From TrEMBL:
Source organism: Engystomops pustulosus (Tungara frog)
Boundaries of every Plus3 domain copy: 1-110
Coiled-coil regions listed: 151-185
Protein name as annotated: RNA polymerase-associated protein RTF1 homolog
Segments for region (Disordered): 249-279, 299-336
Pfam families: Plus-3
Amino acid sequence: MPFFAKTVSGCFVRIGIGNHNSKPVYRVAEITGVVETTKVYQLGTTRTNKGLQLRHGSDQRVFRLEFVSNQEFTESEFMKWKEAMFSAGMQLPTLDEINKKEVTIKEAMNYKFNDQDIEEIVKEKERFRKAPSNYAMKKTQLLKDKAMAEEAGEQERAKAIQDQLNELEERAEALDRQRTKNISAISYINQRNREWNIVESEKALVAESQSMKQQQMDPFTRRQCKPTMVSNSRDPAVQAAIIAQLNAKYGSTGNPDPTKDIATTQTKDKDGNTKSTSDLSEDLFKVHDFDVKIDLQVPSSESKSLAISSKAPPAKDGAPRRSLNLEDYKKRRGLI
């Protein structure tokens, strides 16, 4: 903060100075200034090297911000500070000074940051950040600054930037080793699990094969087979392949190319036109389109009756008459 040093100077804090009989000991001290320490330490979620120049009576010392207490002064701590001030012959702060400091604190709380203040804050955070949020971006920025320093002839600044680059590379390599260490451990666990799964599957296959050997044949169980599926029989190429397989399996039937006989087989319709079987097989009505001869060669009934009449007994009255055959029926009806 650009106003931090000015605002806190003249304020009082409760600072921890150590332990006594396993109990923390605190003192009231006045802030006389803000300095930078040689040690960078963690303060909450940020890192800083700021320290407070504190005065307790005639004693002055620099303390890090992490030792400042958030609690209010106790009565005994206030009396201790008052005695130290009187012993050092120093004057206590007046009411007017306290009112002015209160106004300064309120102004700091209502301070409006500008672009320059924001840039200073970002640079301060980047300065004490342990690891950059983006290594690639940080490396690019350092390389750019190094190139600019070399062009300007600032060799010392270029050397300092090179040291930062080396430190950044070492930090990135350390993080990469840590990351690959975890990955290698996980890979080892996965490989071990895969090997265990293979061993267990082999054991299961051996046990299954042994159980199948011990089982008796079941005549009602469907056996595994590889049937030959005959499809697309109208395709000459498929039909020729099927016949070739059958000939190779059962022997030749004496017809080297039966597909030609099937293709050349022809039929005649009732009009005398020739039709190939391939055309007939495509239409079911054409398959059944032929004449059926129902005229049977039956001997004449007169000659049969004459030959049997001499031996047959006389017909009785009321006996059934001789039934007509198909040919006599057609003659009577005028169909022939």
